[in-house]
Amino acid sequence: MTVQGRGLWARASATARIRALRRRDRQDRRTLGFDLLVAVAATIAELSLLLNDDHSVRLSTVLLAVSAGGVLLARRRAPWTVLLATLALAGALVATDDAPGGVPALAALFTIAEREQRRRALAALVPTATLLAVLSIVSVPVTAGVWVLGRYARTHRRYVHALEERADRLQREQEYLARIAVHEERTSIARELHDIVAHSVTVMLLGVRGARDVLYTSPDRANDTLGQVEKSGEQSLTELRRMLSVLRAPGSPAAAHPTPSLRDLAGLVAEYRAAGSPVELRTAGEPILLPDGVELSAFRIIEEALTNAAKHACPSQILVALAYRGRSLDIEVTNDGATVESARVPIGGDTGDAPVTNGPARHGLLGMRERVSVLGGELEFGHQRDGWFRVAARLPAGEGA
Predict the structure, then answer these.
(1) Cβ contacts of residue 381 below 8 Å, gap of 6+?
(2) d(CA 44, CA 107)
(3) Half-sphere exposure of 128 (CA within 13 A, CB side)
(4) Other C-beta atoms within 10 Å of 2: how many?
(5) In what order do the strands lie in the sheet with 318-324?
């Protein structure tokens, strides 16, 4: 695993540990409340059986019954001590000519059966059942039945615990994969921006050389060339600033193929039509000159939206709409199929931890989100009232783009 992968896995594990600690705290509070309820219920049940006897009620009887129920509060921390204490208190009640029901002792035996290994639980069952039967408090079948219920509760608890651990592991893996997808997409974006900047610098160098060649013979031509170089340099600085905001994997080579742009959009649509996807392209507004990074991101967003639609929605119609609106470029890709859930990424917002659907197209949507976020734009996707699925992006096209 790479250093980046170990870091992403550590973040996912830390998040899972925090969730586990919070869940354990809630579980501890619920456990304390449940133990208090068990102690109160056992005390009331024991007193009810004792007070139904014909002889008069004695203070010692009440104190012994309340003590037997009260020690159940410690049944999880010291189950064996609690079992011995409840058996001793039941014996004391019998010695004072009372007829206890043995409810606290049965609750203590249930706790041992539910928490201990089978051999130790059997070691508690035999003497407890024998003693309760000798004292004529509870019959052996009833005691054995309580023990069996405790073993069943133990099996059920371990099964639920295994399911919770598996769910935590799966959630941690999903978070890890999502972060890996974001990391890989940022790497791809940075590599493409690197290619754009390298191309711009090359053009600038050629322009400067050409201007030097005609500087004295054709000053006007040299001035125009230097103006183009200046404009290209400004765009390159913008792309460099944007490139520094994303992660680029070290040592990854630059792509040898030309960087796609909106000029290649017609060819992309034609490819999908030839493959059987019913794609229609519409353009509104007067096309304007866009920075290379915006052109590339717009092309990639449309490409990913078309891929998701063709692969996951099986639509009968796909519409791609471009709208040039002065200082922004609006992109809209809609289809009449069924894809993923709705979400929204605001302009200029921190989208690093924003949730994205867990559907099959989630990594593609993550890629769109990262590209729009780097440009400071806005992305929306989701089902419309008419049932169509819509992916919409607004990319700034001005000087700050």
Answers:
(1) 340, 342, 343, 365, 368, 389, 390, 391, 392
(2) 13
(3) 32
(4) 10
(5) 279-284, 318-324, 328-335, 389-396, 378-383, 343-345
Task: Please tell me the number of Cα atoms within 13 Å of 243 on its side-chain side.
Answer: 20
183-244 folds as 1.20.5
Q: How confident is the model at residue 322 (pLDDT cuts 50, 70, 90)?
A: very high
Query: Which residues in the chain are classed under CATH 1.20.5.1930?
Result: 183-244
Q: What are 339's two structure tokens?
A: 């894809």
Quote the tokens at residue 127: 């003497």
By DSSP bridging, strand 318-324 and strand 279-284 are: parallel
| Whether pTM exceeds 0.90 | no
Beta carbons of 389 and 382 less than 8 angstroms apart: yes
What radius of gyration do the chain's Cα atoms show? 37
Count the residues in the chain. Answer: 401
Q: Which residue has tokens 């659907």?
A: 357
- What's the rounded mean pLDDT across residues 317-343? 80
CB-based contact 144:125 (threshold 8 Å): yes
State the average pLDDT for the chain: 78
- DSSP class of residue 71? G
CA distance 144 to 70: 24
Q: What is the pLDDT of residues 297-308, one digit of tens each?
A: 899 899 888 888
Rounded to whole angstroms, the Cα distance separating 320 from 306 reads 9
Q: Which CATH topology does 262-396 take?
A: Heat Shock Protein 90 (3.30.565)
- Dist. CA 136–CA 74, nearest whole Å: 26
